[in-house]
Automatic annotation (TrEMBL):
NCBIfam families: Glu-decarb-GAD (TIGR01788). Keywords: Calmodulin-binding, Decarboxylase, Lyase, Pyridoxal phosphate. The modification N6-(pyridoxal phosphate)lysine is found at K277. It comes from Arabis alpina. It catalyses: L-glutamate + H(+) = 4-aminobutanoate + CO2. It comes from the Eukaryota. This is Glutamate decarboxylase.
Length: 495
């Protein structure tokens, strides 16, 4: 018998990925390698490293959608290679965006006739949407000041100290003074009365938040509108309102329809909303809509023709993917008003389950409100031995990512934990999270305190001094944990 053997050019061709040299060779991390590697090896190496990431479904820090239906996932992959800016080449995608803009504008009660077209644009998120809205306010204010022969070099914007960081970016990048209404213990949103008092002739707009990042609470946009209507009449100014509805814009219309916060209020000139939050689309899509065409100055809109036809564009970036726009259109027609309402009601009910479970431990104060974004923000009643940062750290052992953070000025001595209830957070998960919080509390009770001094000084000091010492110790702990988190980010190369 003659035995034959087929030779191969390399054993690599017959080895599995884990049997190849690529799993034992150190690959360059910060410079491109000299040689190519097989696609299977590249895939497996990256996939393995990504296993060390957290589970997106258990990331309770984020408002961003982490689950969509398989049919929508397929649509996303089918359009992953389409550049949205090529409107002449992809006219149907452009039409889908226009449909989304009109649906959202009408959802927000824009004053449109049956045949009128809404004014708005899709963005990569609410941060870009806010930049665009802010630029429109600034330019309108400048144009009016120029016509009146008045200085136009010191614009300001009034917000609460609870605004998302994108508002600070807008103010710094586009040279607008940010006037913040400070918070206070027990009141963690912008006070409309204080905001109206801070408005002056240089105020380009007041920004109200429909769903604070800190505790989910809706700010009183109607109260703010009424105060500004009165102030405008007294002063002759025309101070408008922008509503940052990044989180609440896809919630309020469905489960709080009587709440007046949108274009039903005459001073609301523009609204942004995040499609990738409660619009139920994966990260990468936001929207901004204006009340009328006159609220968006023509001079901010650019026209290009080098892609095949005249195309108007008003964005900060140029190229971007089409898949998230298509996914948003899918959700709007797939769910309809009924479907969105069902999802938001489920989120609210699961929020109540979680809140009640946390209250039953008798260890926390609930900081969030029942009406607002479906989330639970809570803080320890007793900080004598342990704090919220330790709870957050220990919950990670169970897979949960629950953020702990301090409130902005002047409530920075308050530390809270926050759980965001998204579409894919079920009642079963809510009950499991409560059980794991109880386990963490029990374990912390058996551990020595990380706080250097006990706060039980009431017997030695008067009540006023005791409270002062307690606050000082708490601030020491907060500063220490901030440094700890900052050092970890430096080690991980996160900015």
């Amino acid at each position: 018998m003659v035995l034959t053997r087929t030779a191969t050019e390399s054993n690599e061709n017959v080895c599995s990925t884990f049997g190849s040299r690529y799993v034992r060779t150190v690959l360059p991390k910060y410079e491109i390698g000299e040689n190519s590697i097989p696609k299977e090896a590249a895939y497996q190496i990256i996939k393995d490293e990504l296993m060390l990431d957290g589970n997106p479904r258990l990331n309770l820090a984020s408002f961003v959608t982490t689950w969509m239906e398989p049919e929508c996932d397929k649509l996303i992959m089918d359009s992953i290679n389409k550049n949205y800016v090529d409107m002449d080449e992809y006219p149907v995608t452009t039409e889908l965006q226009n449909r989304c803009v009109n649906m959202i504008a009408r959802l927000f009660n824009a004053p449109l006739g049956e045949t009128e077209t809404a004014v708005g644009v899709g963005t990569v998120g609410s941060s870009e949407a806010i930049m665009l809205a802010g630029l429109a306010f600034k330019r309108n204010w400048q144009n009016k000041r120029k016509e009146e022969g008045k200085p136009y070099d010191k614009p300001n914007i009034v917000t609460g100290a609870n605004v998302q960081v994108c508002w600070e970016k807008f103010a710094r990048y586009f040279e607008v003074e940010l006037k913040e209404v400070k918070l206070s213990e027990g009141y963690y949103v912008m006070d409309p009365d204080k905001a109206a008092e801070m408005v002056d002739e240089n105020t380009i707009c007041v920004a109200a938040i429909l769903g604070s990042t800190l505790n989910g609470e809706f700010e009183d946009v109607k109260r703010l509108n009424d105060l500004l209507v009165k102030k405008n009449a007294e002063t002759g100014w025309d101070t408008p309102i922008h509503v940052d509805a990044a989180s609440g814009g896809f919630i309020a219309p469905f489960i709080y329809p009587e709440l007046e916060w949108d274009f039903r209020l005459p001073l609301v000139k523009s609204i942004n909303v995040s499609g990738h939050k409660y619009g139920l689309v994966y990260a990468g899509i936001g929207w901004v809509v204006w009340r009328t065409q006159t609220d968006l100055p023509d001079e901010l809109i650019f026209h290009i023709n080098y892609l095949g036809a005249d195309q108007p564009t008003f964005t900060l970036n140029f190229s971007k993917g089409s898949s998230q726009i298509i996914a948003q259109y899918y959700q709007l027609i797939r769910l309809g008003f009924e479907g969105y309402k069902n999802v938001m009601e489920n989120c609210r009910e699961n929020m109540v389950v979680l809140k009640e479970g946390i209250e039953k431990t008798e260890r926390f104060n609930i900081v969030s409100k029942d009406e607002g974004v479906p989330l639970v923000a809570f803080s320890l009643k007793d900080h004598s031995f342990h704090n919220e940062f330790e709870i957050s750290e220990m919950l990670r052992r169970f897979g949960w990512i629950v953020p702990a953070y301090t409130m902005p000025a002047d409530a920075q001595h308050i530390t809270v934990l926050r759980v965001v209830i998204r579409e894919d957070f079920s009642r079963t998960l809510a009950e499991r999270l409560v059980a794991d919080i109880v386990k963490v509390l029990h374990e912390l009770d058996t551990l020595p305190s990380k706080i250097s001094r006990k706060m039980g000084t009431e017997g030695l000091l008067g009540d006023g001094k005791a409270k002062k010492v307690e606050r000082e110790v708490l601030m020491e702990v907060i500063v220490g944990w901030r440094k700890f988190v900052k050092d970890r980010k430096k080690m991980n190369g996160v900015c």
